[in-house]
Automatic annotation (TrEMBL):
GO terms for biological process: gluconeogenesis. This is Phosphoenolpyruvate synthase. Catalyzes the phosphorylation of pyruvate to phosphoenolpyruvate. GO terms for molecular function: ATP binding; metal ion binding; pyruvate, water dikinase activity. Residues 456-746 form the PEP-utilising enzyme C-terminal domain. It comes from Halococcus morrhuae DSM 1307.
């Protein structure tokens, strides 16, 4: 039999009809109100792959290393091609369509849901991993069944199966075909408290079809009923902005706005709650354990769409596993969903807001956790609203890492798969020190802001070596100044331009040169004013073309094979003096306004040629290099090796950009999470270049500094102070610790000389 009706199956038939099918059959058998349905059995999937002979090729294709994301993607694509590209044998097709014909005269809209044989088993909540199609009608049914089969091999499914130790060959998939309930209201229900197991029945309810609630796209009303007294303990009525509905003709489901009067209205009345409680108790009793139930109400009748055991209740009151459908969640150490690099310290909890390239940023609400491939400059306003940031890509010096640190927002970068593993609305807790992402909310005590996480001494230690601070976004100036730093060791100018969301060339085209200059003057002035008279080292524009590409005007950026090795920093400025001249004009104006604490720093120079050309342009722009403090970043091995001739050209300072110096010395792309473990600023080769450069600079009376991320690391601080560096510039959150570390090393040096 390729197909079985629900009333022909029960809970022992998981092998034939999968977890979902068995559970629905069981419920129907127990007299619970389940919409009519049949199941295309797991055996049908088996005979499809075996009869058509694609089975071996399929299992070979998905036998990959789950941590190799490109191999995983290729495996999924090949599995899909094999399954979708192979015709369904005639007798199978006919049997499925004939059975469908017996469901409501063959005109029903049906939901087609995968029901994997390893799914919904206790301790293995595969929930949500396989495909569901709503509002399918006759002609599409066979295709949709095949798509469900193919969904057994999504990247996520392959990945989880490998992790949970399930063999791909032993996991089959059945497909449930069920009449759609055109729900007026729907939601989920936990028949006991999902983490403590207490006798409380918790119902979540929203308007329209339930898919939006299950996917966490709308915030539902919440009702808690005491199961002993049957009293309603609490009602929280949510502001329900959107709902999922079916268009009558096409059957397509769409999200629409909830009509005004219903937005803040309570979804369930007393009778409906009573029916749900009755059904909930009946289901729990039937199974002998607490259940997580999806339900819907149509024309006053309550239907059960599915039920599964709650896998989150602690057996012994200890740690909990993850909750499938949201609800009252609580984080523990066991439920780490993903790990990445802890890029900005602190612990934050919130609802996931996945931000794709084309998404509107207003979907990020106050306190949400942004989950994205990589942040872009136009996300900064949303990043300020967020309680935390998670990215798939990037390293410790990526845009996400730098900006989150300055905003004081905890961040985990380089998680590889957060955007595909997490879903909107899911409650998570991220730890920006450890780099973990966990299910649920942190305990209140854990939810400290960055400042509280790092115990800070109120006393600023006096140090001979200056301790400065890095600033990328002018909005962080106040926080940065409050650290008591001796100045700004790096102000990245590109963030002022990037935040306009236009490339420099596009900005000038649209608004004119003066407006562009004004943009820079204002950004720098904010910071220079905040720190005056302490020095502020402003770096001229340095963004790789791939960062510019995401902006308006980005289409005119050169398409580079490796932007990190390409058109950026001083190279671009010297190639486009017509644009660079505006930056220099901004400096001239700032000096004219009295900001003599502003210093000019040139990024990514290699040799004296770069320096002399830039110096000439400064002079052309009426900036007197002998009067102003200016210098270079040492970010390439070439610049470290050629520092003496640059000293001869008149630079006042050299500042180690260890993010780039490490990348170019070790040939490790700093933005590539894949090789993040090889990105080591303390590598002896990097330290040797730094040590030599400090020595040359001391001989030539050139001040030295560090403004790369490594300046915030204690071991690097020890090394640099011992080598005799003039100043260290750290991230905002690290300034106080660095001050103390510098003090400690300096005292030790003094002690060593007297001993
Ligand atoms: C560096 O390379 O260390 C640096 C500070 O510059 P950026 O990170 O902006 O390239
Ligand atoms: Mg750099």
């Amino acid at each position: 039999m390729a197909v079985l009706w629900l009333d022909e199956v029960g809970k022992d038939d998981i092998d034939a009809v999968g977890g979902k099918g068995a559970s629905l059959g069981e419920l129907a058998g127990a007299g619970l109100p389940v919409p009519p349905a049949f199941v295309v059995t797991a055996g049908t999937y088996r005979s499809f792959i075996e009869e058509t002979g694609i089975d071996e090729a399929l299992f070979d294709a998905v036998d990959v290393d789950p941590d190799d994301s490109s191999a995983l993607a290729a495996a999924t694509a090949e599995a899909e091609d094999l399954i979708l590209g192979t015709e369904m044998p005639d007798e199978l097709r006919e049997e499925i369509l004939e059975t469908y014909g017996n469901l409501d005269d063959g005109e029903a809209f049906v939901a087609v849901r995968s029901s994997a044989t390893a799914e919904d088993l206790p301790d293995a909540s595969f929930a949500g991993q396989q495909e569901t199609f709503l509002n399918v009608t006759g002609e599409n049914l066979v295709q949709r069944v095949k798509e469900c089969w193919a969904s057994l091999f999504t990247q996520r499914a392959i990945y989880y199966r490998e992790q949970q130790g399930f063999d791909h060959r032993s996991v089959d998939i059945a497909v449930v075909v069920q009449r759609m309930v055109d729900a007026e209201k729907s939601g989920v229900m936990f028949t006991s408290h999902p983490s403590t197991g207490a006798p409380e029945l918790i119902v979540e309810a929203a308007w329209g079809l339930g898919e939006a609630v299950v996917a966490g796209e709308v915030s539902p009303d919440n009702y808690v009923v005491d199961r002993d007294s049957h009293e309603l303990d609490s009602v929280t009525v949510a502001d329900k902005k959107t709902m999922c509905v079916k268009e009558p003709e096409t059957g397509e489901t769409t999200m629409v706005d909830v009509p005004g009067e219903k937005r803040e209205a309570q979804v369930l009345d007393e009778d409906e709650l009573d029916s749900l409680v009755e059904i909930g108790e009946q289901v729990e009793e039937h199974y002998g354990e607490p259940q997580d139930v999806e339900w819907a109400i149509f024309e006053g009748d309550v239907y059960m769409l599915q039920s599964r055991p709650i896998t989150t209740i602690a057996d012994d009151g200890g740690e909990q596993a993850s909750v499938a459908n949201g609800g009252d969640e609580s984080a523990s150490n066991d439920d780490v969903l993903l790990t990445g690099l802890g890029a900005s310290p602190g612990i934050a909890s919130g609802a996931v807001a996945i931000v794709g390239k084309l998404d509107q940023l207003d979907k990020v609400g106050e306190g949400d956790v942004i989950v994205t491939e990589m942040t872009t400059p136009d996300m900064v306003p949303a990043m300020k609203r967020a309680s935390g940031i998670v990215t798939d890509e990037g390293g410790m010096t990526s845009h996400a890492a730098i900006v989150s640190r300055e905003l004081g927002v905890p961040a985990v970068v380089g998680s590889q798969s957060a955007t595909s593993t997490l879903s909107d609305g899911r409650q998570i807790t991220i730890d920006g020190d450890k780099g973990t992402i966990r299910e649920g909310e942190a305990d209140d005590g854990e939810r400290d802001a960055v400042e509280e996480v790092r115990p800070q001494s109120p006393v600023k230690p006096m140090t001979a070596t200056e301790v400065k601070v890095n600033v990328s976004i002018p909005e962080a100036a106040e926080r940065a100044a409050a650290t008591g730093a001796d100045g700004v060791g790096l102000l990245r100018m590109e963030h002022m331009i990037l935040s306009t969301n236009k490339t420099p060339e596009k900005y000038i085209d649209d608004h004119g040169e003066d407006a562009y200059i004004e943009e820079i003057v204002e950004g720098v002035r904010n910071v220079a004013e905040e720190f005056y008279p302490r020095p502020v080292r402003v770096r001229t524009l340095d963004a790789p073309t791939d960062e510019f590409r995401q902006l308006e005007g980005g289409e005119s950026e050169p398409d580079e094979h490796n932007p990190m090795l390409g058109y950026r920093g001083i190279r671009r400025s010297l190639d486009r003096p017509d644009v660079f001249v505006h930056e220099l004009e901004a400096f001239r104006q700032l000096y004219g306004m009295g900001y003599d604490n502003v210093e000019i720093m040139l990024p990514l120079v290699n040799d004296v040629e770069d320096v002399l050309q830039a110096k000439n342009l400064m002079q052309d722009a009426s900036i007197d290099p002998d009067k102003r403090s200016w210098g270079v970043m040492v970010e390439t091995p070439a610049s470290a090796l050629r520092i003496e001739e640059m000293a001869d050209a008149g630079i006042d300072f050299a500042s180690f950009g260890t993010n780039d110096l490490t990348q170019y010395t070790l040939a490790v792309d700093r933005n590539n999470g894949q090789v993040a473990d090889r990105f080591d600023e303390l590598h002896p080769a990097v330290l040797e270049l730094i040590g030599q450069t400090i020595e040359s600079c001391r001989e030539n009376d050139v001040a030295t500094s560090i403004c790369g991320q490594a300046g915030s690391k204690p071991q690097m601080v020890q090394f640099l102070v011992n080598e005799g560096i003039s100043s260290i510039s750290a991230n905002i959150d690290a300034v106080r610790d660095v001050q103390h570390e510098v003090k400690r090393v300096e005292q030790k040096l003094v002690l060593d000389t007297v001993r």
